[in-house]
Design a protein that fits this description.
Pfam families: PBP_dimer_2 (PF21922), Transpeptidase (PF00905). The protein is of the alpha+beta class. The chain is 37% helix and 17% strand. It has a domain of 250 residues: Beta-lactamase. It contains 17 helices and 17 strands. The strands form 5 sheets. It has a 6-stranded mixed β-sheet with strand order 3-2-1-4-12-13, with helices on one face. It has a 5-stranded antiparallel β-sheet with strand order 6-5-17-16-15.
Length: 484
């Protein structure tokens, strides 16, 4: 009898252990995958049962939920879809989210830990659950100005307040209409997504901070110059040999300046002159003297080699390790394997404009619950002390000279002192150039920093120039801010 009881007890114990293990696996290990499974219609319906909070710009919705006559109850709508698509991203029927819709999904859906008591209160009072509203830092006037200035070019524009880090414009083209991905038809959503994904113009990328990055070209000369000045071994007037052509060491490759001549008159050219006139040879010589590790350390202080959350996550801009001498010399004027986003080059200008202090870029002004209580509000934070105030002042003077009588002269604004730097980056034999501009105004008390990238040579191949295309775009955005 005891033997039978032991057997039964053992079986019951094993069954209990099995039940405990299986329930633990379901609740802990596989819960997320089960919840995300497209066949889990209960989770899908639940995610649409609450009215999702709006995304706002200056109090006006650029994404909102409207009642729908189907089982999902609400349809996500984007009133100015293409203009704000790189920022809002899209919300799909269980096919993934992007942009702010993804980054702040917990708040928008009302499921964040900060909204727990709101959820309980809604249950107790019988109210319909509602997500929080997200107010962005974007200025609609500047956003529209940046959109208009970029026109039909493939590229991006970002504008930021350097003293706070608030992003006031973020435009990327080509773009897409997120309304086409918000429909309650999975087949139609998948068809639209595949069409956009296979589009060679890559409209799904937010080019201001993500996707395949471009060589920054001569805008990176600001980083190399900052590294030189910060080292304590150089000043803006430190000079280097000034040939019209330079053969790289350990290589048969020769480099020249954009004008195919020397960097101004004389046998030597200063760092200030090289940056103002955007000359490659003196900067290559400076890069060789500094070494890759010194340049990389300075680049990192500006934000290179890490993802920056705004809270959209950026693709890390790259200043690589283990460069040899010729690669280091090319890197000093933004070539070799250096890659950057407009956000990254705006961060370089932000530090210069703000006396060396680089503020954390940010897109979100506040998160407000449905009862109008503030869940989260924007507080300016320091990203890094990228350079000293003395270095910032020296670089500002060089950038102002570059606009007044240098390579960035097409960024001039009557009656306003503008600091700017252009860049025309090579992408390979016969490939169109990438055209850059970054700068700020007014130079003596900066209100806004702008960075512009135009891909594919602006449609002009290797005939497109940054002074002819990107700098005027940057100027228009700066003017829009100053004229408000």
């Amino acid at each position: 009898m005891n033997r039978e009881l032991k057997r039964v007890s053992t079986v019951v114990l094993l069954m209990f252990v099995s039940l405990f293990i299986s329930s633990s696996v379901i609740q802990v290990v596989t819960a997320d995958s089960l919840q995300a499974d497209g066949r889990n219609v209960r989770t899908l319906y639940a995610s649409y049962s609450a009215e999702r909070g709006p995304i706002l710009v200056n109090g006006e919705p650029i994404a909102l939920s409207q009642p729908a006559d189907d089982e999902f109850k609400f349809l996500r709508v984007y009133p100015q879809g293409e203009l704000y698509a790189p920022i809002t991203g899209y919300l799909t029927l269980n096919q993934g989210n992007t942009g702010i819709e993804s980054a702040l999904n917990d708040y928008l859906s009302g499921s964040s830990n900060d909204q727990f008591f709101d959820q309980v209160n809604a249950i107790l009072t019988g109210q319909k659950p509602t997500g929080a509203a997200v107010e962005l830092t974007i200025d609609p006037v500047i956003q529209q100005a940046a959109w208009d200035a970029l026109g039909d070019y493939t590229g991006a524009v970002v504008a930021i307040k350097p003293k706070t880090g608030e992003i006031i414009a973020m435009v990327s083209k080509p773009t897409f209409d997120p309304n086409e991905l918000a429909v309650h038809n999975t087949g139609a959503v998948i068809d639209t997504y595949e069409r956009l994904l296979n589009d060679p113009s890559e409209p799904l990328f937010n080019r201001t901070l993500a996707g395949p990055l471009n060589p920054p070209g001569s805008t990176f000369k600001l980083v190399a110059a900052a590294a030189a000045l910060e080292s304590g071994n150089y000043t803006a007037e430190s000079a280097f040999p000034n040939p019209a052509e330079l053969q790289l060491p350990e290589s048969t490759f020769k480099i020249s300046n954009a004008n195919s001549g020397t960097c101004g008159p004389g046998n030597t050219a200063t760092i200030a002159t090289a940056v103002r006139l955007s000359c490659n040879i003196p900067m290559a010589e400076l890069g060789d003297a500094l070494g890759a590790s010194v340049i990389r350390e300075q680049a990192n202080k500006f934000g290179f080699n890490e993802s920056v959350s705004v809270p959209l996550e950026s693709t890390p801009s790259v200043y690589p390790r283990a460069l040899d001498r010729p690669q280091t010399m090319l890197s000093a004027f933004g070539q070799s394997s250096v890659r950057a986003s407009p956000l990254q080059m705006a961060m370089v200008s932000m530090a210069i404009a703000n006396s060396g202090t680089l503020m954390q870029p940010n897109l979100v002004e506040s998160v407000v619950a449905s009862d109008l209580t503030t869940i989260q509000s924007f507080e300016p934070t320091v990203f890094s002390q990228a350079i000293s105030p003395q270095t910032a002042a020296a670089l500002t003077a060089i950038m102002v000279a570059g606009v007044n009588n240098g390579a960035a002269s097409s960024a001039r604004i009557d009656g306003v002192e503008v600091a700017g730097k252009t860049g025309t980056a090579e992408n390979g034999q016969g490939e169109p150039y990438t055209l850059w501009f970054t700068g700020f105004a007014p130079a003596n008390d900066p209100e806004v920093v702008v960075a512009v990238v135009v891909e594919d040579g602006g449609g002009l191949g290797q005939s497109g120039t940054s002074s002819g295309i990107s700098a005027p775009i940057g100027r228009q955005v700066l003017e829009a801010v100053l004229n408000k």
